[in-house]
Amino acid sequence: MATEFPEIKLHWLNESRAQRIVWLLEELKLPYTIEVYHRENMLAPISLQKVHPLGKSPVVTISSATTSEPLVLAESGHITQYLCDHFAPTQNPSLVPRKWQPGKEGQVAGETESYLRFAYLLHYAEGTLMMTVLVSLILGILGSPRVPFLVRPVSGFVANKVQNAFVFPNAKRNFEFLDELLRTAPDGGGYLCGGELTAADILMSFPLIAARRRFAHIGKWEGGSLEKAFPRVWAYLDKLEAEAGYLRAVEKIKELDGGKFVAI
């Protein structure tokens, strides 16, 4: 007998964090549909507010025989955790590391290292790391053609000073932290939580891809470049972008959005 799945719809916005949810849904092997939205003057369109009051993306709606109204899920971390809680055990168990050490079920500090990393990274991706990336992105705009020509030399000068004084030290600290996580990953490593791809890696993909593009152009990296300073993190990012599920997600968006895809 075929498994009956609920109706899942992803409200996807171009150049947004929603792309990670496409990848997650691909890894979960779930049937789903995508409604495409496009930015207007860099912002999400007002039409997204009809789905969720904040008008942000990603938003996932889930309809099933047990719900009178669609369930509306917002925030990438919440969406990831909800989908994994309900579907990973049967669809792709490796997306969530085993929670308990043998014989320590339910005990304080009884969790596996892989699971503790997983739980932490779901918050770190949208917290500490993403905040540093966003500050860099905003400062980058101050020196771009989006700023009036007469103001741009001053705004760009100030932005560069802040990038070097504030963003670069934080970027370096975050990459040192990630490099150590990869170096010490359990079960032979390869991914942040161990030897297999997890939903935490998927969630981390967006801020890390954005960070690689933004941070490469600020400060003075050891060896002359971000890649040479942190080859392990760089290789990890290359690995994520070569994952079959990631590539399927990219192709799906290209099919739906006229052959275009820009990560950020």
UniProtKB/TrEMBL annotation:
The GST N-terminal domain, residue ranges:
5-91
Family matches, as Pfam families: GST_C_2, GST_N_2
Its domain of life reads Eukaryota
An example of a GO molecular function for this protein is: transferase activity
Give the similarity note. Belongs to the GST superfamily.
**UniProt name for this protein:** Glutathione S-transferase
Q: Which UniProt keywords apply?
A: Transferase
